[in-house]
# Entry
Amino acid sequence: MAIYVVANPKGGVGKSTLATNLAGYLARRQAQAHEAAASAAPALPEVLLADVDRQESARLWLSLRPAELPPIGWWPVERERIGKCPKGARHAVIDTPAGLSGKPLDAVMKVADKVLVPLQASVFDIYATRDFIAELRSRRKHADVQIAVIGNRVREHTFAAEQLEQFLAQLGEQVQVPMLGCLRDTHNYVHLAAHGSTLWDVATSRVARDLEQWQALLDWVDAA
# Structure
């Protein structure tokens, strides 16, 4: 059982987009594993999605997800108490709100196995992220909890993107966490979210560039 938390105290950095697409990848991978083994799909979803944000954007997205796509279950949690993961689950992704701190932050760090921190191409975001990573380290349950950073909604071939790449390299040296590259700013995510879908639910040719950018992130997710 692995629990992935997507967190950043700043709003508008794409946490829900990352959380839902990560859940979609994990669900697709589980479905392919059953197909390869010629085994029946389990009665209950093996991949769960949770949201400690009162707005529950992830839950709205899940309500739009077509039944024919690899199933993702809903894991109801409280802001200050996550509780035990339902039986049968192999993976869970927890989306978090802006301003995550205090008891809600303690609650997600208590159950987290890996924490993914998205940030945008802003010097303010970068330095705030550095401080947030230090706080995550102080609250994680043990040193085995992995933390990684990824640039999100980055406009390619811009000065801001170049600066972000430079800052990521510097930040990596400072905080000693892996920097997983950048995901571009594209309407693909918006269009897919409107239908409860992810990059792994459509033809590869349609989202090939985005899948390529996700590879480093997926390698980190899949690593033991």
Q: What stands out?
A: The chain has a mean pLDDT of 89. The radius of gyration is 17 Å. Strands lie at 2-6, 47-51, 73-74, 91-95, 114-119, 146-154, 179-184. The longest strand covers residues 146-154.
